[in-house]
Amino acid sequence: MTHQRLSADEVLTTTRSVRRRLDLGRPVDLALVRESLEIALQAPSGSNAQHWHFVVITDAEKRAAVGEVYQRACHQYLAGPGAAGKLHADDAERSKVQKRVHNSVAYLADVMGQVPVQVIACARTGSTALPTGNQSSLWGSVLPAAWSYMLAARERGLGTAWTTLHLLYEREVADILGIPDDVHQGVLIPTAHYTGTTFKPAPRQPLDEVLHINQW
Predict the structure, then answer these.
(1) Average pLDDT, stretch 61-67?
(2) Does residue 1 register a pLDDT over 60?
């Protein structure tokens, strides 16, 4: 299998959201996805419940159907006031970055159905309704595994992106994939090989602007 031989710090700081650079024409060996998911299962799980499930979609018709739902949800998001390209309009430098993100999100909306592999991380709760109040325990036992999958995929030469917009129409996607009513979707991760080789840490706020020691 292909490994990048990256250090832990490199994997953690260069696992970027890959949208425009996803290689839509190159097949993905399912063994790479399985390896990445095996690593994902080592993530923390509250009470060791391990109620995570992963739906891996390779069937062309199902990928296209999920892609149509995602595209519809994404276009709705892009038209709204909270879309990436409309944030930080008062900061010229940051606005440039936001517009690039906006455009890449729009691109992914139009090609999601063509991405070779789609992975949906889910939580099985035994109930058709999510718990009321604080859900950090529930999602804190699933989403770290999804992020671990993305990190492991990066090490194996695969690009991914964290997407949740399809959850506007979660039931439609559940019907396409036969997901039971007591299984709740958390994130949709497009997975493919990528073009180019340059991945680097993204610009972020200085740590001291968000760091609070002992009190706010």
Answers:
(1) 98
(2) no
How far apart, in whole angstroms, are the C-alpha atoms of residue 29 and residue 23? Answer: 13
- For the cut 90, the answer to whether the pLDDT of residue 92 exceeds it is no
Question: Two tokens at 155?
Answer: 């090490």
Report the C-alpha gap between 108 and 159 in whole angstroms: 13
- Domains parsed from the chain with CATH numbers: 8-209 (3.40.109.10)
| Verdict on whether the full-model pTM lies above 0.90 | yes
pLDDT category, 93, cuts 50, 70, 90?
A: confident
Return the residue matching tokens 């080789």: 197
Asked if residue 182 lies in contact with residue 126, where contact means CB atoms within 8 angstroms, the answer is yes
Of 52, 177, 187, nearest in space to 124 by CA: 52
Contact (CB, 8 A) for 129 and 87? no
| Sign of the CA dihedral with 99 first, then 84, 109, and 24 last | positive
The whole-angstrom separation of Cα 40 and Cα 38 is: 5
Through-space distance between the first and last CA atoms of the chain, rounded to whole angstroms: 47
